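To close the chapter, one final illustration. This time we ask the reader to focus less on the individual chains and more on the assembly as a whole: which components sit near each other, and how the overall shape emerges from the parts.
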Amino acid sequence: MHTDLITFLLHMGDNTLILSQRNSEWCGHGPVLEQDIALTNIALDLLGQTRNFYQYAASLSGDGTTEDSLAYLRTVREYYNCLLVEQPNGDWGQTILRQFLFSAYQYPLYEKLKVHPDDTIAAIAAKALKEVTYHLRWSSEWVVRLGDGTPESHSRMIKALDNLWPYTGELFDPASYEQIAAIDSAILKTAWLDRVTAVLAEATLPLPGQTFMQSGGKKGLHSEHLDYLLAELQYLQRTYPGNEW
Amino acid sequence: MAPIYNNDTIQAIREILKDVCDPEIPVLTITDLGILRDIRLHDDTIEVIITPTYTGCPAMDTIAMEIRMALLEKGYPKVKVTSVLSPAWTTDWMSTAGKQKLKQYGIAPPDSRMAIPEDGVECPQCHTNHTRLLSAFGSTACKALYQCNDCLEPFDYFKCH
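The assembled structure is written out below.
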């Protein structure tokens, strides 16, 4: 049984690991080389954040758990990431929008966590905040470019919003272990919504109205997409246990 | 028998570590980059404290290994490399000599005015400021891609971080 602190760290690291894995699926497939590199750079930053959260969680476990065993040897129900990050890449527009919605959430979250009483959490957040600033800037620019672009790109962004919006509610519906963060989710939601509203307005995209919000990921109840993602992510260690480079 | 360290040990180690370079930007040493934070002596173990530039920087594992190798070669077998995150690394810690070396190597050094300027970063080839941003992300996490409008040469810029 994990303590709330460990589960919270896993949740934080799972969010960044799964989004990192999704973004890396674009490696070699981006629309132009610069943007392929941008997305894989973001994937690398997210992987770095994951390692920090997992290393801290592993050090607290004290039962032989390592950052690698956390990434490669847990089953789908033992992952605590939100549903948003595991959604399939879809087209470039959906990938961009998913990154933007998540970066806009990470930014105020890390801003609060960088003054967390736990020194390690505060240090990870302060470090990561610098990186998230780039991610948010880059993804915001792309949302504007595609939303306020051609009729084709505009309609694709509307479709991406329809697809992803139902997964944004979960971000502000705290799981029990998130009490560790000691952040008022209503304040976080306001900061997120202000940012999202401003960028969507500039992108000439409508802010989606009230809709049914999906949830479950933070409790380990995932969409079927995560099974396929983990099958690929964990393939090597599952097939050749303990194998090293 | 455990080696005996004295007050000169830290200075000697600092000298050895002056030759450890970043594997991605081999003209810069870890001292130039401001990655080397501290050296501590515990009984028979030397602890070298480093800090990552970016959390996901894959060069950090290589740098830690190179630190151990460099010290092993000079007769310091027991070395522990610790990575600390706080305070978070900033390009302000890069030495003036380091910035100069970067420029000569063809990478524009960090510009303290802003993280990623839209234009105006000095071209390391022809030294004009008539340049533009191509991409906020470059060949490694710490760099962005620019192009010179005069000599047309694309170049890396070390992001102010």
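Helices of chain B lie at 7-17, 30-33, 59-73, 96-105. Strands of chain B lie at 36-42, 45-50, 79-83, 107-108, 131-135, 143-148, 154-158. With these observations in hand, you are ready for the problems at the end of the chapter.
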